Amino acid sequence: MWSGAYGPEKPHVRKRVEWKRIGALFASYWKEQTFVLVCIVVSSVIGLIPPFVTARIIDVAIPRKDFHDLAIDVGVILTTALISIALGVTQGYFNSLVGEGIMRDIRTRLVSHLHRMPLSFFTGTKTGEIMNRVSNDVDNIDNVVTGTLTTILTNVVVIVTTIAWMFIWDWRLALISVAVVPFMVLPLGPVGRRMYDIRKKTREKRDEIESITQETLSISGMSLIKSFAREQFERNRFYDVGTKLMRLEIRLAMVGRWFMASIGAMVTIGPALVWLGGGELAIAGLFQVGVIVAFVSYIQGRLYGPAAALVGVQVQIVSALAVFERIFDYLDMPTEAYEPEGATVLPHVRGEIRFENVIFSYSPDRTILDGVSFEVKAGQVAAFVGPSGAGKTTIMQLVPRFYDPQSGTISIDGHDVRTVTLESLRRDIGIVTQETYLFHDTIASNLRYAKPDANDEELRAAARLANIDDFIISLPDGYATVVGERGHKLSGGERQRLAIARVLLKDPRILILDEATSALDSQNEAAIQSALEVAMRGRTTLAIAHRLSTIVSADVIFVVDAGRVIESGTHAVLLARNGPYARLYRTQYREAVS
Ligand code: ATP
Q1: What's this model's pTM, rounded to 2 decimal places?
Q2: Is residue 388 lining ligand 1, measured as CB closer than 6 Å?
Q3: How far is the CA of 562 from the centre of ligand 1 (A)?
Q4: Which residues, at least 6 apart from 387, have a Cβ–Cβ distance to it below 8 Å?
Q5: Has residue 358 got a pLDDT over 70?
Q6: Residue nearest to atom 30 of ligand 1 (CA)
Q7: Cα(509) to centroid of ligand 1, in Å?
Q8: Shared domain check, 213 and 89
Q9: Ligand 1: distance of its center to the CA of 117 in Å?
Q10: pLDDT by residue (tens digit) across 459-479?
Q11: Average pLDDT, the chain
Q12: What CATH number is given to the structural domain containing 282?
């Protein structure tokens, strides 16, 4: 399934509805559903009693002026009503249990599937669209999973028992009663298809709205809008998409309108026919009025009502299918291709890293790494330098297998990274990037993300090594300070030092470091510099180096240009060689040198 580094394949267009798959979602709740089914059958059968007893009241108890009979009949009606209410409440509870359980299961499956999706999926998909599927789409099938099964079962059982009973009681009136039912069902197909199409489009529009919201209402997006004064533009863009969605929703609402109206008509026409036919038979003295009253009550309450409900459910299901399809599309996307059969756990890592003739591209039309080979010995600090876009970050991302190369091998301590389990591989790699990501949570929780069981002393020790402890304890809430969305309540330098402390807590054997290019004041710079020195100590470090001090003190420097390592050696050796490194050094670091 995995298509190399080119990201997930486009989901195929599904032709057939995967009923089995939808059914499988219900499978683990079979006990609760059996219970619901029992409630439904019992209450449907009980529901036959009141109209029957009503007919007895009209035709027997009242004409005979028998108060005792009347009281018994009324007592029976009341008792059946009470039992029905109790059954209804119990059924409602189990129903919610099944529905909400299924929703939780789908959501968790979606999220855990997304966790295993390759990074290329996230770079190629708008966050808003992902959010929309995980939250709104799942919410949208809520009605279907919570109510549908019960609605179908209840109504089918009610209809079947009612028709059977009506034919047993009087087949002539029964025939008249069911005559209009086909007219209610016929238009189902075309109406359903139309709803399905429109529903698909409304979901896409909602994706768009969610994406715009996500992008513009984030802290970075807002800063951009404000700095370019684009509020009016963004408002108009939002309004336009909103209008398109509004039109689609109106169309969706209107599709079933005529159809529902025709069902409404049948609900009136049916009883009229029963009165006409039954009335004629009653005039002929063939049976009594109470029977007609009971039949009318059956067909209104237990035949047309449920038939209309089934039709409604069918329409609801068809339009929910469009949403199910979107969820299944995500679940079918290939996850990270990984862990071949029998992947081994990477044993205690020393930290020797070797690239052999690695060729990599993000998309087939452009090669990014064109035969990269290098070796970094355990415990060494390797600095990668080179012009922007040369491929340095890409090299780093291949080590923890965020992407896989098209050819060549990457090994750690002689183990090809593709043959070991992802968990063991990533456990020993720590990454500090230019852009520090922090959760909107406390400093302590953010640090513990690296080591959930770390105690307070461990947190403080790591923070001290990263030169950030003093700052943290000077805050009014100390380690309980909430860092704000993405950590924006902290300065860039503070965020970086927190990220270093976080990596120190993880204590990996290999450190990947993308040094920040942004200049910090000298005090901050010095604090970060010494934090990094601590972080690098005793670990193999691959650093995309921007600081002169990191480059000069590195054990080995690799000069990357246009996807190749064109030169390597120590600072002194490379300077003496007077090649590309020496030129880069003179142009890029002239200021720092002088
Ligand atoms: P810099 O020093 O500016 O960060 P770099 O040497 O780290 O640059 P890379 O980030 O590795 O360069 O990028 C190498 C090339 O790959 C660039 O031309 C970039 O446009 C491209 N690239 C990076 N990430 C992706 C991606 N996810 N999809 C497609 N192309 C990408």
Answers
A1: 0.73
A2: yes
A3: 11
A4: 561, 584
A5: yes
A6: 362
A7: 26
A8: yes
A9: 20
A10: 999 998 888 899 999 999 889
A11: 84
A12: 1.20.1560.10
- The alpha carbon of residue 521 and the mean position of all alpha carbons in its chain are separated, in whole angstroms, by 42
C-beta of 118 in contact with ligand 1 (< 6 A)? no
Burial pattern 96-131, b for ≥16 Cβ within 10 A else e, equals ebbbebbbeebbeebeeebeebbebbeeebbebbbb
Q: How confident is the model at residue 127 (pLDDT cuts 50, 70, 90)?
A: confident
> Ligand 1 centroid to 325 CA: how many Å?
34
- Of 332, 357, 382, which residue sits at a domain end? 332
Does 436 map to a domain?
A: no
Q: What does the pLDDT look like over 13-27, one tens digit per residue?
A: 444 567 788 888 888
Question: Is 545 in contact with 588 (CB distance < 8 Å)?
Answer: no
The residue nearest atom 19 of ligand 1, judged by CA position, is 389
What's the number of domains the chain is made of?
2
Query: In angstroms, what CA-CA distances link 399 with 360, 569, 577?
Result: 13, 21, 29
For residue 369 and ligand 1, the question of a CB distance below 6 A is answered with: no
Res. 594 pLDDT band, cuts 50 70 90: very low
Ligand 1 pocket, residue 125 CB under 6 Å = no
Residue 3 lies in a domain: no
**Domain shared by 268 and 141, yes or no:** yes
Confidence at 521, pLDDT banded by 50, 70, 90: low
Task: Tell me if 316 CB under 6 Å of ligand 1.
Answer: no
Between the CA of residue 545 and those of 217, 563, 565, 587, what are the distances in Å?
Answer: 33, 17, 15, 15
Q: Are residues 221 and 359 in the same domain?
A: no
Which residue from 358, 359, 362 has its CB within 8 A of the most atoms of ligand 1, so it is best to mutate? 362
| Residue 371: CATH number of its domain | 3.40.50.300
368 lines ligand 1 (CB under 6 A): yes
| pLDDT tens column, 259-300 | 777 777 777 888 888 888 888 888 888 778 888 888 888 888
Range of the domain at 210: 19-332
**At which of 285, 300, 332 does a domain end?**
332
362 CB near ligand 1 (under 6 Å): yes
pLDDT at 585 over 60: yes
**What does the block give as tokens for 234?**
């963004």
**CA gap 443, 477 in Å, rounded:** 10
282 plus 406 within the same structural domain? no
In the block, tokens 């010995």 appear at: 377
Give the Å distance between the CA of 394 and the centre of ligand 1.
6
